[in-house]
Amino acid sequence: MLQDPEHWIWDSWIADDGERYHLFFLKAPAALKDPTLRHEAAVIGHASSTNLTHWDVHEDALRPGPEGAWDDLALWTGSVARGEDGVWRMYYTAINTGRGFTLRDQRIGLAESDDLMRWRRVGDGPLVSPDPRWYRTHDPETGASETWRDPFVFVHDGVWHMFITARATTAPRLSDGVVGHATSPDGRVWELQPPLTTPAGFGQLEVMQLRHVGDEWLLVFTCHPDEQSESQLLSFGNFSTWMVAGESPLGPFDLSRAKPFMTDPKLFAAPLVQTRDGEWVFIGFRNTEPEGVLNFHIIDPLPLVPR
């Protein structure tokens, strides 16, 4: 378990260097007392482990930029990918103070590292922004978006792909969540693409991951019950972690066929990780808001139960 009495810890993601699992996570001071305030105070923490149970805590990986920067308020969820050049790249979400939208102006940035310990920002602005032709925006004139976050990046057939938590323009609220998509030749310069999925009962697909489990490609995502359609809740009940299989890393993924992780209905923002002996396990935190203040820590691994 990863727990810090002075900080709340919630969303997390993993980078595996072959020897240690490096966990990056959102953290905010517990002194805030009101958990809803954590979103404007989040930084990216860092810990590492050999067994996903006992963690060594390191210096924070990344903190907000200086006043006036595009990422000067708080940093949110991301992912880490490594290219053929050996450089580790962290793609992260950020919010800023500059345009007055704060939580509703979600942007995606990049930092790089040679050792997963020391990170340097790349560029002075967001990597890729939503296009109102395909994705719902808060204000089409500025490009601000209420849902444009949690980039998950991987390389497939020499092309870098980014999955983004996004919302479609044509579906009703609580059924408009889609997998946003962008591509890049080098992990630095990105071109936006249309969504990879069509809406189906989820208001947003948070903290997405792609994992090759057995002979299936699993798209894993989080959706709080409050962000699911009535028909979705009637079909399955209150679950937060979901999976849907695809034939390739790019799907197709039919969200209407997604199934919940039933072992722990409140498991949230849960990295699916392969242990050294080949077993697939979930870690993450339990989202029990409004009582969640006592559950802001990373739990010990739970096995992926055969679906």
Report on the structure:
The protein has one helix at residues 230-236; strands spanning 7-16, 21-29, 43-49, 56-62, 74-82, 88-95, 107-113, 120-121, 149-156, 159-167, 177-184, 191-193, 206-213, 216-222, 241-246, 259-260, 267-268, 272-274, 280-282, 285-286, 302-303. With 307 residues, it is mainly β. The protein has one domain: Tachylectin-2, Chain A (5 Propeller), CATH 2.115.10. The strands form 6 sheets. The chain has a 4-stranded antiparallel sheet, with no helix packed on it. A hairpin with a 5-residue loop joins strand 5 and strand 6 (88-95). The longest helix is centred in the last third of the chain and has 7 residues, at 230-236. 43% of the residues are buried. The mean pLDDT is 94.
Name the CATH homologous superfamily: Glycosyl hydrolase domain, family 43
The CATH topology label is Tachylectin-2, Chain A
Q: Any idea what the shape is? A: globular
Kindly report the spatial arrangement of strands forming the biggest sheet. Answer: 1-2-3-4
Low-confidence stretches: none
- Rounded radius of gyration (Å): 18 Å
User: Briefly, what CATH class?
Assistant: Mainly Beta
Which H/E pattern describes the elements? EEEEEEEEEEEEEEHEEEEEEE
Largest sheet: 4 strands, antiparallel
What's the mean pLDDT score?
94
- Range of strand content: 35-45%
Distance between the termini: 26 Å
Q: Supply the helix-strand structural class.
A: mainly beta
Helix % is: under 10%
How many β-strands, per DSSP? 21
Number of domains: 1
What is the count of DSSP helices, taking H or I runs of 4+ residues?
1
CATH A-level architecture: 5 Propeller
